Amino acid sequence: MADKIRVYELAKEHDMPAKEMVELLNKEFGLNIKSHMSNVAGDDLLIINEYFKEEKESSEEKPVENAKKTNSKEENMNNRKDNLDEDLDELDDLDDDQVAGKEKFGNAKKNKNQTKSRKSNANDDEGFNDNKNKKNRKKKAKKGKVGRNANQSNEDQATDSKIEIPEIINVGAFAEKIGENPNMVIGKLIQLGVMSGLNDPIEFEQAELIAMDFGKEITLEQEYSAVEEQALDLDYEDREEDLIPRAPVVSVMGHVDHGKTSILDAIRDTHVTRGEAGGITQHIGAYSVDLDGREITFLDTPGHEAFTEMRMRGAQSTDIAILVVAADDGVMPQTVEAINHAKAAEIPIVVAVNKVDKEEADPNRVKQELMEHGLVSEDWGGDTITVDVSARTGQGIDDLLEMVLLVAEMRELKANPDRDAVGLIIEAQLDKARGPVATVLVQKGTLREGDNVLTGSASGRIRAMFDSKGQPLKEAGPSTPAQILGLSDVAEAGDKIFAVNDEKTARAYAESAAEQKREERLMAKGASLEDLSDEAREGELKELNIIVKTDVKGTVDAVSQSLLKLSNEEVKVNVVAGAVGGITESDVLLAQASNAIIIGFNVRPTQGAMERAKDNSIEIRTYSVIYEAIEEVEAAITGMLDPEFVEEVLGRAEVRDTFRVPSAGTIAGVMVTSGTVPRRAKIRLLRDNVVIFDGDISSMKRFKDDAKELQNGYEGGIGLNRFNDIKVGDVMEAYEVVEKKREL
Hints:
Helices cover 39% and strands 28% of the residues. It has 21 helices and 35 strands. The strands form 10 sheets. Strands 9-10-8-11-12-13 form a 6-stranded mixed β-sheet, with helices on both faces. Strands 15-16-21-19-18-22 form a 6-stranded antiparallel beta barrel.
């Protein structure tokens, strides 16, 4: 026996679930065990082993005692049988009328009990359905009434005297809502100095004052989009007794070419990688793997972007994340991004250190680099499970799966299979031969061929279902991925899918969602320092999320610490992510999901990131001095931000060649790739999206002539003021600072 052992290993030795072992050690032995990854050692381990030894011995003695008890039971049964025979003989001697009377009485009693039981069950079912319907109508009810019975719901309804009204309502409708005479309501309005007729609108603030005069309490009616209404009406919380264990859903994430798909290939023994260009995953796939009767569902995503887009729509698709890191390459920028996205989703991470079979592999270096990002390996006293694997040789794959199942066991994942199905769209596309095709991950209930389904603005009847191997499928339970045919339109990845009773219902919901969903997408809005400053001034700002990108690692830590110190009693500052390098589309996605602003130091966003940020109103602020950022964020928190000048990017040009001119220095031959580059503009020279130079243009030529401006798609020559370190591949960003009046 080892001197030290982890709790989950101890549980395995004694054939016991890890969660039960944690509870036993805390309850019986008074140990402060925090998780299944904690260690037990020394005298504690000796006492625990002694305890289990005694338990085993006592369980071995019990069969002998049970055998004795069985013998004595048999004797008692024989005696009872003899007595019963005597009683039956006596019963035969009774008068026929007495026997008939007894039978009649017995049947009546039996019928009465059955009726009572049926009534009881009916009441229970009625209470549950009543509760479910009420809960589905409003979000407020959904949060507050889960698990209550019908009586409690009725009591709540009786005590809850709040009346919901819209923000603007006419006098007649308001009087009807609060159950008062319209003339009396008009009289109250006159007292407030408001002259309104029966059909004139009144605002919520006025309605609230009048309702108080009548002793009524009103609240603002909550409005939901058509997509939200689908979830409110068609989804509900299941009763605890209906839930059964389900398979975990696992996402595999990591840097490109670190072996994500190769690991899945080794697990499910198929060759996905060979069929894809360059070995890079180009689609989202979902696969179920059977391990000795225990199933795991894997989501093979092309990266954390898709994972985050789903979470951004409120869809928590994953239970556990496997982070793949190559042992010969270490932690890379996309690895850091994957860590940040998994942490933002608040899901446990299991690290798979891949390619350990290579000579240059160094797993310890990987663990050291992971520590810098808050993932401390269990070997080094942390709580992050780290497994050395090789997708090529198959080494450690079984250990990785065992660790995933262990984490799943600790999370106690459950679902109800006996209800209308609710699932998640993992991917969707238009197939020329089969029409709209969607890959669905069932989360609750059971999805069957022939079911009428609804997802966002698409609806239809499932004509066919296929499993991850392309085989026909009749039904799919919780945590099961399935490909379905029969939708009216291509669904959106991340949307929920619901099974409904009839086609008419599905179509009605879909038509209602079609227009609203388009508007919702257009109105998606991010955060800006100006908005946050307004919220702070009005006392509404509670939390400020920030993503930090810098040119060097030391600056990331310095900036993050400085920003965190700005937190006060009213506003908490969170640094959602901090990393080295330019601002990418992935950063904008994370900002959109976290409602964060992006702050950059000596770095710039890519063209794609700028466009995505503009489309989604995500603010990107770049600085060259730390103090400027600290001052602006501090001003925003106190509600005193007053941005007098804002920066406007005019265009970008790529350096295609360089020329050395004796009198003018290095001249860059450029191609304008977006916008325009005016002669008057300021110029930033970017190398890998890191700022190398920030200053003025010394000269601009179009062929041999001086030029005032270079248009998009045109070539020209640009010289920078007192700067000659220009290289092919650099990007010039033209910008100007303009004055902007603050809107009050």
